[in-house]
Amino acid sequence: MSEPVRWGVLGVAKIATEKVIPAMQRGKLSRIEAIASRDGSRARAAAEQLGIPKSYGSYEELLADPTIEAIYNPLPNELHTPWTEKALEAGKHVLCEKPIALDAAEARRLIAAREASGKLVAEAFMVRFHPQWRRAREIAQSGAIGEVSAIQTLFAYRLLDPENIRNRPPGGGGLYDIGCYAILTARFIFEAEPLRVAASLNIDPQFGTDRLVSAIVEFPGGRHLTFSAGTQLAGAQRVCIAGAAGRIEVQIPFNAPIDRPTRIVVDSGADLVGGGARAEEFAVCDQYTLQGEAFSRAVRGEAPLEFPIEDAVANMAVIDACFEAGRSGRWVELRHYTRPG
Predict the structure, then answer these.
(1) What is the CATH number of domain 5-124?
(2) pTM of this prediction?
């Protein structure tokens, strides 16, 4: 087995300290060696709590550490691209939290940064590594539920704290935080890029961020994603993938639990009470562990990087279109947009 990749983490964000770092520490190919914060005491506390050998009082110090091979970047959204660029320039591979940028133009800078550095860079959408999504795509592409033409997604939580980063511009709001998952998973299932978007945005008058976004995203062949993402609604997650001969329900599509199996339901549509339904269950796993291991394998050259930075740029372009459609009240076409090669 290859030597584990030596990782450093920029910042002490909750997603890092509570989810991603513990998950990666359970992997065989990922070793968290250092963590940094602009507040050295916070970095030391996180390192002690999580059993991380080194802590730094600045991001620059971490990037200067020659022993660190890869960086995980969970900083606030507006800092994703700038610090990912800095990490690449420092000769580190980078796995950066979603959304990779605040718009597609900013995200495209990372293509040049990757080329200049020769290092890997990818967006951290962990759901693509969970077996339930791999299986859902396999079923959808197999023809088992007929031609898949519609995906409906609801993703919601209730967060009213004005100081929470998710409620503060420029990087806060529902579309950046959770609407991005609806777009990503539809692209994943359809294996295609959208043609045009119509959307509606409800902006919180106090926060200045979108608290509810709903959109229709049209794909080639008359296929549609319809989704709603809300930050001031009761918590809910559901995805329905509808075909001519059946449908797939992904029951906990995004925050899949790590302490119990997950399920998808495949229903032939024989009746409305589930007479044609069967469930497929997936063993307990942590999608953050799987994501980290996949990136580490790519760093070691044991597997290709399945979702390069071009995929992140493509997802950002659809987010851009949703913002424009919501603000303009009209359909927005993505003619400039082609599937990344």
Answers:
(1) 3.40.50.720
(2) 0.95
